[in-house]
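S., here's the first fold you wanted:
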Amino acid sequence: MNYVLIPGAWHGAWVWQPVARRLREAGHRALPLTMPGVDGDPSGVTLADAVAFTADTITRLGLRDVVLVAHSWGGYPATGAALRVPDRVAEVVYVSAVVPRAGVSQADELAPEMGAFVRGMIQSGGTVPIDLGSVQSVLLPGEPEPVQRLVAELLVPHPGAYFLDSLDEAVLPVPARYVLAEDDIALARPGAEFAARLGVEPILVPGGHETLITHPDEVAAAILKTAG
């Protein structure tokens, strides 16, 4: 199988590398992506650009039997790409990710107060930054401080339009599964609610939102299990 791995907000392809290594060791191709504007100029980048980048990468490389694996905000470009090239996608696996609804943005999924806060940051600076305190309290609570600080240094501000844009269509034309980190407190809504949008029960893995880093063995095993 060909696994195309999409990171969440503030992250690049690096966050998937531990899981990707295990998928390759199991005999599969694993391709972590960094979305446009995350490793460069974020101005003018839209969700449509992230969707097109993901779908075009699959097409350009001639990939088929693709399993799109999305973390967190990455559920948006993964869903959009599956809709763009359904003949090349076998399955979408959401790992503690947002399962989008048509016309509903990431900012809309947040609690009203947090959504307003995020929109204010975007209006003033064009991006959504993240600080060490948020990493320590939300993304990696309870992990060793050196790990928290390292991850915080790797994270970059997320393009604002990625939080404000939505998909015109969100009903997947391919099968989907949901893998949920059992201690995740960073999702905009409970993971079980996102899984219910797919009509499935979540497959639980240990850890919090950054389980890709803290528990790559279990995450890789869950992804491989969902592929049947």
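And the second, which I think is the more interesting of the pair:
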Amino acid sequence: MSDLLFEREGPTAVLTMNRPERKNALTLEMLRGFHEAWDEIDRNDAIRVAILTGAGSDYSVGGDLSDGWMVRVPGEGERKVQVTEALLMTRSVSKPLIAAVNGPCLGGGCEMLQQTDIRVAERSATFGLPEAKIGLIAGAGSTVRLKRQIPYTKAMEMILTGEPLTAQEAYHFGLVGHLVEDGRGMDRARALAERVAANGPLAVRNAKAAVIASGWLEEETARAVERRLVTEVIGSADAREGITAFREKRTPNFEGR
């Protein structure tokens, strides 16, 4: 079995980290799978949205420490793995990415979570960055992103103490947007994916791009980014179909666009 499963459910791609016996700890094989999966999701217009989850009762506890690949000088084979892109440190997937967190979400798993767009947590899930406890740093994006996504003081507490948040706390502080009962995470994620996939694909893709590209830029610069991406949508076939459908009081048909 592959360390990362890639399945299609109509317009939705479902990625499942698949090492339940190791709490879905990240391996180099899994990172290779992620790199290929992100390429396919970006390339394939039939894919409108993606869901990321873990097999069994864990989401992901981060990099596999028993292997040690995170702190080892890369060998020839490992140089071929573009780790930063696979972990979404230096890459943003063009399609919306939904996380269905079904258990512990720690270390690199929690850092990848911060690059997802919509997040669902089951009540037994936990969220943490324990790197400092073993002399490492949560450096796969957390020192940049986490303070922008939850209150600064709570982000610093997570990074500096290594202590986790409960799912309720993660929901309270805004790290996740949905809190559901255990076993219902994928149900909620699929429902959200269906709603996203029903919308205009260009509008969705450019809306995400505008949010990511503008980031925390000064407003004038950010508005220029937004204007460019909005202009691509206005007058597009998707926009014309959406407006026509609204006038005709029917559901838009974005298939094949």
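Why I say that: The mean pLDDT is 91. The radius of gyration is 19 Å.

Talk tomorrow,
H.
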